[in-house]
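Objective 1.3, modelling of assemblies. Example input:
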Amino acid sequence: MTATSAPARSRPGTRHPRPAAARLLRLELRHNAMLWMMPVAVALFWFTAGRKTLASPPLWNLRVAVMQPTAVLAFASPVAGAAAWMGSRESRRRTTDLVNITARPRPARLLTTWAATTCWALVAYLACVAVVYAVTAHQATWGGPLWWPAVVSAASLAALAALGFAAGTLVPSRFTPPLAAVAAFFALGLSTQLIKGSQSYWLISPVVAGPWDLGPNPEVGTFYAYLPDLPMAQVIFLAGLTAAVLGTLALPTGSGLRSLRRSAAAVTTAGLLVAGTAVALAGTGRLDAHGMIAIPALHDAASDRPLRYTPVCGHTTIPVCLHPAYASYLPATEAALAPVLGQVAGLPGAPARISQAAATYQQGPGNSVGIGMAGSPIGGTHPVFHFLLPVQLAGPVLTTSEMTSQLRSATGPGIVASVTGDGPGASQAQHAVTTALLMAAGVVPSHPSAPRAPTTAGSNVPPPGPGAGGERYVAPPPGSPAYAAAQRFAALPAAARRAWLTQHLAALRAGRISLRQLP
Amino acid sequence: MTAGGTRAAPVTTDRPGAPRLPGSRRAGMRLARLYATSRRIPAALTAIMACALGLRIALIGHWDSYGALQLPLVFEAAAATVIVLTAASPLGEPERITGRWLPYLRLAATLALTAAAIGALAAAGTGAHLAGGTLDVLRNLGGFTGIGLLCAATISGGLAWIGPVAYLLPGVYALYTQWHHPALTTPWLWPGRPPHDLGAAICAGLVFAAGVAVITVRGARDLPGEEA
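Predicted structure (tokens):
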């Protein structure tokens, strides 16, 4: 074919040529190392974040809180490493002089490469998030997706790509990509070591999804609205950091015209100011009563109102009602409490309903957090007994049998004690009757010498307060008169026990019954 | 040999008064020096020393249980990536054809750098609380290096760091699951196993041996157009 025989007509696509920037981005997307790093990042995500997230109970708040830090850590090294690899490309391929004479200014070319790297990282991340959210939407019984944690992770990827890319561009050595990848993991993974309490500047780290050392908390965003204060500060910080780092790419001499370098300096300064402001804002955060970090300057007071919901109730003799987010726990809760409820149902003063309550949080010294229940566990003209599920006490994920056992041994005695009036200052007879009813219900009372089971996660988290459902009941010591009376009372036929209680419960609660008067 | 390679090999002349070495020995020394220069082994040694120094400085700080256990692993991974990056050749095909002593040089350089890294990291932990101790450093660094060498032979010498960096997260996660059950107990995730665990040591040793064997025989894979 000769030159003259070649068609002179241009293709339809060239009549409206795409902007040069878009074409450059397309080229960069096709030749980007992050594209090949995506399988590694996705595999790391599923090995750590995905499995862990989907293994946790199907509560939106819990799953996104588990996902945010692990997802950021899973993507940190691949994204930073790939970005550094791309940043050092011109030097590695010895094409610096070749591309420096092209029409596009150097900062524009570098920005396009960074944008392509970030795009692929976000594509991989969003695909992982989509799967986690889709599975959670299918399994969750209440609520909807919380987007802020996903936004924080996405902003982290852009910032990590910028940091890695800048490292690769400014120090184009073969050692830069791996060291950038390891440094990113080190900085993120171990930044939380510096957090002390809820008022810490280090909460700005994107691997922090809430009060540190409280861990992922299923309570957050159920009884009260999810507070986006901390995620907002984190996103502001990450955006400022990204802008500052990208601005530095245009600062070196030879990057372009003086006006361009001035603009880059302005962007860098503005980015640093924004990032610094966000860090300062994070430092003003405090743990609120609902277990979230509230930052006064970013706080919306409307978020402090309790959320409306219709509880889901069971069919035990005294109905057990839970927040709909915890509906999956209802069968286990009913199974745990049914024997105890059978002992007290119909007695004067017995609760008309057993209802799940919201936990309250209080910052302790260091990173310790006190979790309890506000107010008395029982109250109202139609008495309602309030309790906390063990999963609300922020600890390791419990199996169904562990939760049943914990409910039976912690909440069960609370229900019986609310009927008998047992508690601090109660009489020996009240203590004995409580123990007897628990024996009859199959709840084996603890001995005073037995060690208390931990009710919360971490050794530095104190146990919940009275009535929260987290304290084990301590029975009278075997061999004591109260224990003997309890055994005697428990051995009575159920009908005889109920008849005696119906007749004498008011006197028992008033402390007018002695051990000898127990049948 | 490329121009870069030529530049890296300055012509040496015997200085007056310098001790005269036998010809073959002198050539061997020169070959080793050229190999070390072409693989940037001096820079790698500097980076390894920087890792050891970083670990030493980090160990001065106060770390909780998680941090104390994860800290050495991060520096071991960094040192391993530095070692495996020296496997990449900047000379490519001409060197492979003409380099009769290349397998021996690769083997010696890899073993020497690994030994130097183990020694440096172990020395950095002397007198401080280095979680797992020297045995952990030996096992983890060997395993990380083996993974990186296998990556160098299969992916590319320049991208060999992907293996150790990618393995770092599962390693840290395996440590994490020792507190948060179900624990990952497979010996192939050796960082999560105690230092005296035989299965984990065997797995890490096998990976290291395989990596060293492959890199000795085949060398690192070259990516066209990339300078290693």
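The longest strand of chain A covers residues 359-363.
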